[in-house]
Design brief:
- With 184 residues, this protein is mainly alpha-helical.
- 74% of the residues lie in helices and 0% in strands.
- The chain is built from ten helices and no strands.
- The longest helix has 22 residues.
- The protein is globular and about 50 Å long.
- It starts with a helix and ends in a 5-residue tail after the last helix.
């Protein structure tokens, strides 16, 4: 079933919408939430919550990219659960990802929170300007929370090569943000 057909099921309030969503994207969503949470039961709960939130939001929204819409919901729910479950001791992989990005993305508190939309716009422009392979590596690491080892395997690269490329991309991002007037 196509994404458009599944979305139509949501619009028609058909219970088959959730079943078809699970068939089409259940494994991907489970993998995404599990990479973030490192817990099978929590990951399954997040995927179910993703279906519920999708059910409640689609009649007003008509997503253009259905999996991206689902993944966004899933990621937010997973990171919220991770924050709640482990407020003081975070999972090592998530801390590593956060630490990597901390060097080139400004703090989201206070004055910088006001500029959030501007930062998103600039980040989108930066990603669009990257060569496809660099963009894919960056997105797999910082959106899908893939480990360096998973990325290396997926793109037939060495882990060292992936780390180097990500490091260089983060540096380019930092420079790009500063050129756009966003202070780090």
């Amino acid at each position: 079933m196509t994404d458009a057909q599944i979305i139509e099921l949501y619009w028609n309030r058909s219970e088959d919408a959730v079943t078809e969503t699970e068939k089409a994207y259940g494994r991907k969503l489970m993998s995404l939430s599990h990479r973030i949470l490192q817990n099978q039961e929590d990951a399954a709960e997040i995927v179910n919550d993703t279906y519920l939130k999708t059910w409640n939001s689609i009649p007003t929204a008509r997503p253009k990219y259905f999996y991206a819409y689902l993944a966004t919901i899933c990621r937010h729910l997973a990171f919220n659960l991770l924050n709640w479950n482990q407020a003081e001791k975070r999972k090592a992989e998530i801390v590593a990802i956060t630490d990597e990005m901390e060097t080139c993305i400004p703090d989201s508190s206070g004055e910088n929170a006001i500029r959030g939309k501007e930062i998103v716009r600039v980040l989108d422009a930066f990603l669009e300007a990257l060569p496809k392979e660099q963009r894919l590596l960056f997105v797999r690491r910082y959106w899908f929370a893939d480990s360096v080892a998973e990325i290396a395997k997926r793109y037939d690269l060495t882990e060292s090569n992936v780390k180097t490329r990500l490091f260089r991309t983060r540096n380019k991002l930092r420079e790009y943000l500063e050129q756009e007037g966003i202070q780090i």
